[in-house]
Amino acid sequence: MFDYYSASTMEVYFVTFILLATTVIFLFTFTTRKASKRNHLPEPWRLPIIGHMHHLIGTLPHRGITNLAKKHGTFLHLQFGEVSTIVVSSPKLAKEVLSTYDLTFADRPHNITAEVVVYHSTDIIFSPYDDYWRQLRKLCTKELLSPKKVKSFQSLREEESWNLVQDIRSSMSGRPINLSHIVFSRVALIVSSAAFGKGVNDPTEFTDLIKKISMEMGGFDVADIFPSRKIIRNLSGKKARLAKLHNAVENVVNKIFAETQSNQSNTSEESLLDVLLRLKDGIEFPLTLDNIKAIILDVFGAGADSSAATVEWALSELIRSPRVMEKLQTELRQVLNGKERILEEDIQDLSFLNQVIKETLRLHPPGPLCMPRESREPCVLAGYHIPKRTKLIINAFAINRDPEYWNDPESFIPERFENNPANIVGEDYEYLPFGAGRRMCPGIGLGLANVRLPLANIVYHFNWKRPNGEKNEALDMSECFGAVVQRKSDLVLVPSF
Ligand code: HEM
Question: Entry's PANTHER family (predicted)?
Answer without folding.
Answer: CYTOCHROME P450 FAMILY 71 PROTEIN, PREMNASPIRODIENE OXYGENASE-LIKE
